[in-house]
């Protein structure tokens, strides 16, 4: 009989504790992770810079600058799910160039040596 009373008391405490915390944590009904922004991929071969951005989904603005900040090129490309473009830098003098890609409210920069 003592064991039964002891078991009943423990069970009552456990049930009371589990129901008293039931309203603290909100119930998760859906999971919407923050989408990641794909980083541009650059491939440099000879004097051609090939850029691809998978799933850009929004307009892509490309700016090419010299290391001192002088802007050489700016272009805006719209209505593309993914972005693919080749840049011929054969006419550029030897040096380093900064390629900036802006899309999905994010800017990525890559330095290209010629």
TrEMBL record:
<protein>
    <recommendedName>
        <fullName>Por secretion system C-terminal sorting domain-containing protein</fullName>
    </recommendedName>
</protein>
<feature type="signal peptide">
    <location>
        <begin position="1"/>
        <end position="22"/>
    </location>
</feature>
<keyword id="KW-0732">Signal</keyword>
